[in-house]
Every structure is written in C-alpha cells, then in structure tokens.
C-alpha cells in the first residue's frame, strides 16, 4: 500500500495590532502612496511584545486541528517554518508541541526564510509518503517585526507578523493531495537578503538587509520558470505565490496569461509575513468561503538563501 498526503484543514492567526501605511508615514519619511504603488501593501499586523512566534503558531495550529477534527495526540510530526524563533534552541516546533500537548509527535523547525513553508510542506509530504507519519502539522509563523530595522524605510514597510498552519494527512486517493514538489537553492546569493547578525557572528539576531532590486529580479524570473515548468505537465487552476510584492505577482500573472481570479493574493492586508505568507493566504481564502474542492493550486516561493520551491496540490 502506498499513500498520498492531502491538506485536511487550514488555520491562521494574526496579532491584533494593525499598522497602516498612514501610521508608518507618521513614524518615518514615507507615504501610503509610495508603499501601495511600489508593493501593493496597505497594512500589516504587528505582534505585541508579549507574543512570540510559538504563540502565533499555536493559535493557528489550534484552528487547523479543530477544523481537521483530530486531537493533538493524533499528530505524528510538527514542522514549524520560521526565521524568528522564540529562542536559539530548543526549536519553536517543540515549544508549540508543549503548548498543544501533542505528545506523540516529533518536532523540528525549518529554516528557509520565505520559502520555509514550502520546504516544510514538501518535507512532511515525504514523511507521509514514506509511511513514517500519518498526520503532520505544518506551520509557517513569524514575528518578523522583531528583526526589522525601523530606521530603514526600504525594508521595514514591507513585512508583517502572522501564522498559518495546515494539517497534512495521509490518503489512499492518489488523485487528491500533493501531486508534485520541487525545491531549490543557490548559495551564491546569500548576501542579497540576510540579517546583519546571528548567533555565530555576533550573538544577536540582527536586522534584515536586502538588495531589493536583485531579489526582485531573481524572484520574478525564478517563480515564472518553476510555474511554467509545472504548467507544461499539469493543469493549474490557481497560483498561490509568496506574498512579497504585488508587482512580482502581476509579472507572473501577465507572463502566464492567467487572470486575477486565479491568483491567491492577501499582500494588501498582511504584507510579507515570510514563512507564514502562503499558509496565511490559503487559510484567509478558505475562511472567507472560497471553495477549492477538486481544484489544482500551485504554491511557489522565493526566500533568502536564495531558496525557492513549487508545490502542486489537488485540493
Ligand atoms: O520575501 C523575500 C523576497 N523579497 C522580495 O521579493 C522583495 C523584492 N524587492 C522589492 O519588492 C522591491 O525592490 C522594493 C519594494 C524593496 C523596492 O522597490 P523598488 O521599486 O525597487 O525601489 P528602489 O529600491 O529602487 O527605490 C526607489 C526610490 C529610492 O529613492 P531614489 O534613490 O530613487 O531617490 C528609495 O530611496 O524609493 C525610495 N524609497 C522609499 N521612498 C518612500 C525606498 N523605500 C521607500 C519608502 N518610502 N518606504
């Protein structure tokens, strides 16, 4: 018997505080006009000082578990994709495990920046297909606001905090679920998107530093290339790209000759939430009543490393 994995449920969580572009323009030399025109972002959520990545992840996971109608004890694997962990160690995934009381699972974090969720989902899919796991909780969660330099208007306006989660379960139905995954990275570009610090370098987490134009150029060409490759082989009904910049998403849409309705986009209200972007957007659409039943969704990401990925899912 061989199995496939499918998305059984989704959940997400956003911190209460919402910071608009107008709020930002009172804090620094920027404007709603510049931010919205250049990025498509209007507002982002910012975690309270008392809230950590594990809290956001826990809240998103609770929703996904209740919608899957399974108990935390039935989860065999927890992967938390994040670059803003609560602590250097233990992993945020094990802290979430403790909060959920998911005591039969093994848990670890995935570090692939904005590609983290795609990497985590592909990993969980492999564990299920290898028959080591029946139910996995795959989370993308970030308090990205903690690693922003609030004096650098070229980066701090782009990001927000949030979490998204899915329960990935095994199925005998080969037509449904994760059809194909592809991951990639190119370490020659480690310097175009990175933090100014780290445990090894200077014992602080540091702040985000980005060569925006270089990342933009790579993101557009790589995400287009992967999506086209999958399209040659499979039918794609919807594309869910990493939510970094509406201009990157528009570029994909135009070059793939797809319509706005075929793109899952939440950047206007969430900004770029790094590893949380994709599961947060998926859950937002599903929670708003969008029915993806029997449709093929293609997830595609780009993140620091540079890392990238593509996952085709039949919902
Ligand atoms: O999640 C990982 C993946 N990340 C991405 O994919 C991000 C990719 N990059 C981008 O989305 C874009 O490159 C940015 C949104 C970061 C920047 O947009 P851009 O069109 O490349 O702008 P730019 O960096 O070339 O800056 C244009 C101008 C500059 O002024 P001068 O030199 O032309 O006078 C900047 O100083 O805009 C200025 N600027 C701002 N002005 C008002 C930069 N940030 C701001 C700001 N408000 N917040």
Task: Lay out the secondary structure.
Blueprint: E1 4-13, E2 17-20, H1 21-27, H2 32-39, E3 43-46, H3 53-68, E4 77-81, H4 92-100, E5 106-110, H5 116-129, E6 135-142, H6 153-156, E7 162-171, E8 177-185, E9 193-195, H7 199-202, E10 208-210, H8 212-233, E11 238-241, H9 246-256, H10 267-270, H11 277-287, E12 296-303, E13 307-314
Parallel strand pairs: 4-5, 4-6, 11-12
Antiparallel strand pairs: 1-7, 2-3, 6-7, 8-13, 9-10, 12-13
Helix pairs in contact: 3-4, 8-9
This protein binds oxa(dethia)-CoA.
Oxa(dethia)-CoA binds near residues 39, 219 and 303.
Annotation keywords:
single chain; 315 residues; alpha/beta; five-stranded mixed beta sheet; four-stranded mixed beta sheet; 11 helices; 13 strands; binds oxa(dethia)-CoA
Structural class: alpha/beta
Q: What ligand molecules are bound, each kind once?
A: oxa(dethia)-CoA
Into which percentage range does the β-strand content fall?
25-35%
Number of E-type strands = 13
Strand order of the largest sheet: 1-7-6-4-5
- Alpha-carbon distance between the termini? 22 Å
Helix content: 25-40%
Low-confidence stretches: none
> What's the shape?
globular
Number of helices: 11
Biggest beta sheet attributes = 5 strands, mixed
Tell me, rounded to a whole number, the average pLDDT. 97
